[in-house]
Design a protein that fits this description.
- The chain has nine helices and two strands, in the order H-H-H-H-H-H-H-H-E-E-H.
- With 230 residues, the chain is mostly helical.
- The protein has two domains: 4-180, no CATH class; 197-222, no CATH class.
- Helix 3 packs antiparallel against helix 8.
Length: 230
């Protein structure tokens, strides 16, 4: 059930034929690239605008994939604000810690700093493991992990800027999707909930379900839910 604020934006979306964006997203495949490209460009422009007036660097390379995911697949868990925020937070924190522990000399000089390379590899691997473990998988966060482990964030101030920029981006995505009539969660996607099929006390979970009808029939026969006929 939509909140009062969401209902208000839903009604506003009907003004000035803004429902065009809904049609572009749902029924017009040839219009969808325009929806994707325009909204992505606007999101970056707004970041640049705030970066200019605050003199705070807010445009980070790893936010580009996050924006594209949010507008390309808003219904997916990997695009949800929860996954995006916690994923980037994990990636940045692990990468930053790796950079501090494994070396800060970077790749400058005639020889490669192998300690730093090992730290970068460890940071990326650990980021992936923790995102999977906490169920906040967000692939663009891997870029944040690499940037941080290579010393891109020279101070906590810059990392805080990334998080603030991310919040601003996610808020933009939510507003634009509301105006377009496209479902997009405030925090966690419904896809994170494990659905199931139940009938006569027998439940099938997607991760444990058979992949084809023949395997399904065999399973139901084995469970005694249907009778086998010649």
């Amino acid at each position: 059930m939509r909140s009062l604020w969401e209902n208000l934006l839903w009604e506003l979306s009907k003004i000035g034929r803004l429902r065009f964006w809904y049609l572009a997203r749902q029924k017009g495949p040839w219009l969808f690239p325009l929806y994707l490209g325009l909204n992505s460009a606007v999101a970056i422009f707004v970041l640049g605008f705030f970066a200019k007036i605050t003199s705070w660097p807010l445009i980070f390379p790893s936010l580009g994939p996050t924006i594209l995911l949010a507008f390309y697949a808003p219904e997916k868990a990997i695009s949800a604000p929860k996954n995006a925020f916690l994923g980037h937070f994990l990636g940045g924190s692990i990468g930053w810690l790796s950079y501090i522990l494994w070396g800060s000399s970077g790749f400058g000089g005639p020889e490669i700093n192998y300690a730093l390379v090992a730290g970068v590899a460890l940071a990326l691997g650990l980021t992936g493991v923790l995102m999977f473990f906490f169920k906040v998988l967000h692939p663009p966060a891997a870029s944040t992990s690499l940037l941080a482990s290579l010393g891109y964030f020279s101070s906590p101030f810059q990392f805080l800027g990334l998080l603030l920029a991310l919040i601003l981006v996610l808020l933009q995505c939510k507003i634009m999707h509301l105006l377009a009539g496209v479902p997009y969660p405030w925090w966690s996607a419904k896809e994170n909930e494990l659905p199931k099929l139940s009938a006569k006390g027998f439940s099938l979970f997607p991760k444990k379900s058979p992949r084809d009808l023949e395997a399904l029939s065999d399973l139901l026969i084995a469970k005694g839910k249907i009778d086998q006929k010649d």
